């Protein structure tokens, strides 16, 4: 066998390596599309959850908060706020509803959004639904 590294050998490594990783990625895509519907429990997406997601976007909650690790690091992670506040939608609603209009003196805090009861309920439903996504136990602790 020749001791030199030939062009043919380089080409074979290139094609063989490419094919190997294409197969690995196809396998991962297949696996993801198979397990995702169970993990995100999409059958529980109600019209309230959809409205809550829209309000989440319209009010730019992610400009301060993270949700499942994505977003800004100014305010607490909210993917597990439902558990943190004692599995209570009312606790989430009260928190958002009773923010002081003029803010908390001396520091930047969560604003008052003046949302209707229906909107508050939708946001709480959205955060509850998010908290029940199987996201590999993220965040790793209850504080977020
Ligand atoms: C300007 C930044 C900012 C925006 C925008 C914001 N928040 Fe907050 N939020 C905070 C801060 C800061 C806290 C922590 C409590 C505090 O200091 O006021 C907080 C706390 C919370 C909590 C309680 C968290 C806990 O662990 O007790 C909830 C629930 C919440 N926000 C929901 C929302 C929702 C829903 C929206 C969008 C409608 C939103 N926030 C938009 C800054 C923000």
Task: Describe the structure in your own words.
The protein is mostly helical. The chain has two domains: 1-39; 42-144, Cytochrome c-like domain (Cytochrome Bc1 Complex, Chain D, domain 2). 51% of the residues lie in helices and 3% in strands. It is built from five helices and two strands. Helix 2 (47-58) crosses helix 5 (117-131) and helix 4 (89-97) crosses helix 5 (117-131). It is elongated, with a radius of gyration of 23 Å. The model has no long low-confidence stretch (mean pLDDT 94). The structure holds heme C. The site of heme C (HEC) has 21 residues, from helix 3 and helix 4.
What labels describe this entry?
about 140 residues, mainly alpha, Cytochrome Bc1 Complex, Chain D, domain 2, 2 domains, 5 helices, elongated, binds heme C
Reconstruct the topology from this structure.
Elements: H1 7-39, H2 47-58, E1 66-67, E2 70-71, H3 81-84, H4 89-97, H5 117-131
The site of heme C (HEC) has 21 residues, from helix 3 and helix 4.
Main sheet: strands, sense, barrel: 2 strands, antiparallel
In order across it, which strands form the biggest sheet?
A: 1-2
Overall mean pLDDT stands at 94
DSSP helix fraction: 40-55%
Low-confidence parts: none
CATH superfamily of the largest domain: Cytochrome c-like domain
Which of globular, elongated, flat, extended, rod-shaped describes the shape?
Answer: elongated
**Assembly status:** single chain
Total number of distinct structural domains: 2
- Through-space gap between termini: 60 Å
Query: For the CA atoms, what is the radius of gyration?
Result: 23 Å
CATH class of the largest domain: Mainly Alpha
Distinct small molecules:
heme C
Going by helix content, strand content and strand pairing, the class is mainly alpha
β-strand percent reads under 5%
Number of strands: 2
- Number of helical runs? 5
Helices and strands, in order, run as HHEEHHH
Query: What is the correct CATH architecture of the largest domain?
Result: Orthogonal Bundle
CATH topology category name of the largest domain: Cytochrome Bc1 Complex, Chain D, domain 2
């Amino acid at each position: 066998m020749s001791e030199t590294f030939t062009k043919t050998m380089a080409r074979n490594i290139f094609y063989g390596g490419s094919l190997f990783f294409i197969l690995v990625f196809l396998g991962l895509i297949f696996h993801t599309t198979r397990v995702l519907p169970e993990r995100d429990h999409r059958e529980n997406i109600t019209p309230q959850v959809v409205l809550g997601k829209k309000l989440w976007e319209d009010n730019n909650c992610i400009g301060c908060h993270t949700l499942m690790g994505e977003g800004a690091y100014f305010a607490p992670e909210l993917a597990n706020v439902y558990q943190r506040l004692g599995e209570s939608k009312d606790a989430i609603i009260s928190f958002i509803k009773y923010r002081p209009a003029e803010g908390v003196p001396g520091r930047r805090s969560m604003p008052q959004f003046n949302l209707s009861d229906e909107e508050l309920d939708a946001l709480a439903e959205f955060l509850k639904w998010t908290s029940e996504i199987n996201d590999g136990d993220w965040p790793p602790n209850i504080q977020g």
